DNA sequence: AACACGCACAACCGCAGGTTT
DNA sequence: TAAACCTGCGGTTGTGCGTGT
């Protein structure tokens, strides 16, 4: 793969940008627009490499950039998103209007990490004293949730499923088995940071579909479905809007395991945490 | 006043993956 | 199809500033 090494290009300025350089770059981009970063230095008359121009524009010169004074709400959101996404700074920055990935990364490394480490060491020493061990779901990464369409299902259910599927997220992967059953897999964390996660209508749709599942379970469907239904009712808090996933797919995956209740509980608890987070964001 | 130290943040670097030729 | 090119990302480094000694 080709690589653009600024360091290998001679005669280029390095280090802090001067106000004149900033002005030249700003004027050029205002006239010609962003993109084609490699050509910008030559055309604008800057002794900088394209990557440096891009970085300067995106992190500093771009309009509507907020600088400094990260609020408590923003800080809280960064911590929550980092819990979900890890060091995916650009994704985190995407949920904080006006903030750049570089700023959030710096803020995390210099400020938040220390705060969190401080809290964790306090918690550790408390746990050591009281001999509390962390629950498994507190340590696990987030899994994948599946939405399935059972072709033998009612037309009403299918229509709802298709509506939900169309709305979830663009980069779902679709799998089909021999019986024609389909599953759309998507990563929870990607969904939660997408615009769709704050779309109330989408959640209403999910809720509606979930109710059709429940009513079909009540009508006496397969044993596995009702087992799942019981599990879901047991572990799903009534305060949460349910996120959809098919009982068939989940059970096919998990029933092979010896400890199905433990496994299901673990996954549902994680999903529950995510949804609680989402609901908290909406209410705050 | 001078120095050392730590912190915050801007900027750099290397890499990966997507796009173009 | 493969090489070249471009862009974006995350980790790391460099530097200026404030504070303590």
From TrEMBL:
Myb-like domain segment(s): 9-61, 62-112
Keywords: Activator, DNA-binding, Nucleus, Repeat, Transcription, Transcription regulation
InterPro entries: Homeodomain-like_sf, Myb_dom, Myb_TF_plants, SANT/Myb
Highest rank taxon of the organism: Eukaryota
Domain HTH myb-type: 9-61, 62-116
Primary localisation category: nucleus
GO CC term (a single one): nucleus
A Pfam family that the UniProt record links to this protein: Myb_DNA-binding
GO molecular function, one term: DNA binding
UniProt-annotated location(s): Nucleus
Protein name (Swiss-Prot/TrEMBL): Myb-related protein 123
């Amino acid at each position: 793969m080709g690589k653009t090494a600024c360091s290998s290009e001679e005669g280029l300025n390095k280090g802090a940008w001067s106000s004149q350089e900033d002005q030249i770059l700003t004027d050029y981009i205002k006239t010609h627009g962003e993109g084609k970063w490699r050509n910008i230095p030559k055309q604008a008359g800057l002794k900088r490499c394209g990557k440096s121009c891009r970085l300067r524009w995106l992190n500093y010169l771009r309009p509507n950039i907020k600088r400094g004074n990260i609020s408590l709400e923003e800080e809280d959101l960064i911590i929550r998103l980092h819990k979900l996404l890890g060091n995916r700074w650009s994704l985190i920055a995407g949920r904080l209007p006006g903030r750049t990935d570089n700023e959030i990364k710096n803020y995390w490394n210099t400020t938040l990490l220390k705060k969190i480490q401080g809290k964790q060491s306090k918690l550790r020493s408390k746990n050591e004293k009281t001999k509390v061990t962390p629950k498994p779901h507190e340590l696990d990464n987030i899994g994948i949730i599946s939405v399935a369409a059972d072709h033998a299902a009612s037309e009403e259910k299918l229509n709802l499923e298709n509506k939900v599927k169309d709305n979830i997220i663009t980069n779902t992967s679709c799998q089909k088995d021999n019986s024609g059953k389909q599953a759309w897999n998507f990563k929870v964390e990607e969904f939660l940071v997408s615009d769709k996660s704050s779309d109330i209508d989408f959640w209403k749709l999910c809720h509606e579909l979930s109710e059709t599942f429940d009513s079909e379970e009540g009508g006496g469907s397969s044993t596995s479905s009702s087992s799942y239904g019981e599990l879901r009712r047991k572990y799903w808090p009534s305060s949460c809007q349910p996120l959809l996933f098919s009982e068939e797919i989940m059970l096919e995956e998990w029933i092979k395991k010896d400890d199905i209740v433990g496994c299901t509980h673990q996954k549902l608890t994680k999903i529950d945490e995510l949804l609680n987070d989402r609901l908290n964001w909406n209410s705050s």
